[in-house]
Specification:
2 domains; globular; 8 helices; Jelly Rolls; Arc Repressor Mutant, subunit A; 17% strand; disordered C terminus
């Protein structure tokens, strides 16, 4: 599959990590791991099994298995961890673990604009305009008790802080492994107590032990793990960095 990502308009970059495209043949089931970020997705060719053509993907706690039914051609918006809250005023926790049609959120026009656009460049411009129309930056939260800060995190990010941190830590572990590090070293470098702790998190998030997940890694899964590493680089094994 071919993957590309693009920066949004400057006024959106505080909230939106990137726009992205994915294209290629479908057919085989694909595993997608949670990465601590919500997304918008529109299928421009064949939708995936049991999915609408345009979707809001809330914060996920566990891997999702998708099945492309035909040719894959996707345009997506990847938010920063709390970024979606600036455009969708419901508590993000309401859609945690869910994948919801955009029509249910009153945003069906964006889907039509994406399908009518002749090129990715036009889709990017139209998505900039769509998001800028909806942009309502949340008021900054200062002070407050720990409980209040946790509630604000849950409202804007969608997951409890500990759950979100577990997902990001696991993504860092995968990036370290991809950089060439042995699993035992990965566990310590990524902040786990020991290798058993890493194995437990891997099973909780992906349903598989680390080596089994690695063996069964799908093309989309591999690509998205690589993208996470590109966005959050780690020093390669043997580097003094």
């Amino acid at each position: 599959m071919d993957y590309c990502d693009y920066l949004p308009a400057p006024a959106l970059r505080q909230f939106v990590a990137c726009y992205w495209t994915l294209s290629g043949p479908g057919g085989a089931p694909e595993r997608v791991l949670p990465d601590g970020r919500a997304e918008l997705v529109v299928h421009l060719a064949d939708p995936f099994e049991n999915q609408a053509r345009a979707l809001f993907i809330g914060q996920q706690r566990q891997a999702v298995l998708l099945r492309p039914l035909g040719r894959v051609e996707v345009f997506g918006v990847r938010f920063h961890p709390a970024g979606a809250a600036a455009f969708f005023r419901f508590p993000q926790s309401e859609l945690a673990g869910r994948i919801v049609p955009m029509a249910d959120l009153g945003a069906k026009n964006w889907e039509a604009e994406m399908h009518d656009a002749p090129t990715t460049a036009v889709r990017r411009v139209r998505t900039d305009a769509f998001l800028l129309r909806r942009l309502q930056p949340p008021a900054p939260t200062a002070g407050g008790s720990r409980r209040q800060r946790e509630r604000e995190f849950l409202r804007t990010v969608g997951l409890p802080p500990q759950t979100w941190a577990r997902i990001v830590r696991f993504q860092r572990a995968l990036a370290l492994r991809r950089a060439g590090m042995a699993w035992a070293s990965v566990a310590l470098e990524a902040g786990y107590y020991d290798q058993a702790h890493l194995i437990g998190d891997c099973r909780r998030i992906t349903g598989l032990a680390p080596l089994a997940r690695e063996t069964a890694e799908t093309a989309m899964e591999r690509m998205l793990v690589a993208n996470f590493q590109d966005a959050h680089p780690v020093a390669p094994v043997g580097s003094n960095a």
